[in-house]
Amino acid sequence: MKRLLITGAAGGIGSVCRKRLTHMADTLRLSGRGDLGEPAPHEEIMLCDLGDKIAVEELVEGCDGIVHMGGQSTEASWDVIRNANIEGMFNLYEAARKHGKPRILYASSNHAIGFYRQSQNIDATAPVRPDGLYGVSKVFGEALASMYHDKFGIETACVRIGSCFPEPTSHRMLSTWMSFDDFIRLVECVFRVPVLGCPIIYGVSANDATWWDNTSVAYLGWQPHDNSESHRARLDSEMAAPNRNAPDAIYQGGMFTADGIHEE
Ligand code: 15L
Q1: Structural contact between residues 18 and 9, judged by C-beta atoms closer than 8 angstroms
Q2: What is the pLDDT at residue 235?
Q3: Domain for residue 210, yes or no?
Q4: Average pLDDT, integer, range 154-167
Q5: Which of 6, 169, 191, 222 maximizes the CB count within 10 A of its CB?
Q6: CB of 160 within 8 A of CB of 178?
Q7: Is 134 one of the annotated active-site residues of the chain?
Q8: Cα(233) to centroid of ligand 1, in Å?
Q9: Is the confidence at residue 33, as pLDDT, over 90?
């Protein structure tokens, strides 16, 4: 690619993308809300509020691919969710439709299906069960991506990211953890596969304790290498497993399922 846009480039996963996707494009265009520092020679920095339609059009113009990590990434008030994840997604897809229909990797979330029980195994065909307004906004994003694919041919990988951190930090994350290395491998597959379509992908490492089935996206050639089992002994020594009646032990979305509606 000539230019790859990374939104949310100041965030946890976005900053990993900034460092580790340099081989994917001549130029990385970075946007985010936090401080992105000084651009390197292969970088362009464009600060942008995703709720600002005109700014998002300028951001997307000239990009051949988008890794969309931007937006609100946890439960929040409706105003915050609506601006970043509802208006922001619409603005991004409208801009993509008008400016060359770049391929998109969309950071959806396991909170789109967070009310499934941890005793259940699900695949991409399972009906959504969002666990909060944040989860609902991620479902909206997946639906929007699907419509822009069917109607306008824009291809999107909707990645329901589990827990993408340096290492799992709770017993629940033994099932939801995705290593940074596995995520970067996934981004490479998404932008290299000749025909992507608009699949739902569970963003999770090759954990023994998984709840999620990615059989339907075998065509991507993505083979996660890491396995949270190598962290189990450390976690067991650092903390007690959650009580079996606690949300973190019952639901796939963990504690997000117990969150109320955030008032303004
Ligand atoms: C998410 O969607 C969040 O963005 C992240 O901060 C984690 O909380 C993750 O889900 C998770 O479920 O562990």
Answers
A1: yes
A2: 97
A3: yes
A4: 98
A5: 6
A6: no
A7: yes
A8: 22
A9: no
- Please compute, for residue 44, the number of CA atoms within 13 A of its CA located in the half-sphere on the CB side: 17
Query: Tell me: the pLDDT tens digits for 180-192?
Result: 999 999 999 999 9
CA 173 to ligand 1: nearest atom: 13
Burial class of residue 239 (count of CB atoms within 10 Å of its CB; 0-12, 13-18, 19+): exposed
Name the DSSP letter for residue 116.
S
- A 10 A CB-CB count for 144 gives 20
Q: Does 238 reside within a domain?
A: yes
Q: Which of 115, 161, 212, 257 to mutate to test the pocket of ligand 1 (most atoms within 8 A of CB)?
A: 161
- List all residues whose CB is within 6 A of at least one atom of ligand 1: 73-74, 109-111, 163, 176
* CA separation for the pair 178, 146 (Å, rounded): 24
Do residues 142 and 175 make contact, with C-beta atoms less than 8 angstroms apart? no
User: From ligand 1's centre to the CA of 74, what distance in Å?
Assistant: 7
Measure 100 CA to ligand 1 centroid, in angstroms: 31
Q: What is the tens place of the pLDDT at every residue in 107-138? A: 999 999 999 999 999 999 999 999 999 999 99
What's the structural domain count of the chain?
1
User: Is residue 264 domain-resident?
Assistant: no
Q: The CATH number of the domain where 233 resides is what? A: 3.40.50.720
Q: Is the residue at 263 inside a domain?
A: no
Percentage of the chain modeled with pLDDT above 90: 99
**Distance of CA 56 from the midpoint of ligand 1 (Å):** 25
Domain that holds residue 163: 3-258
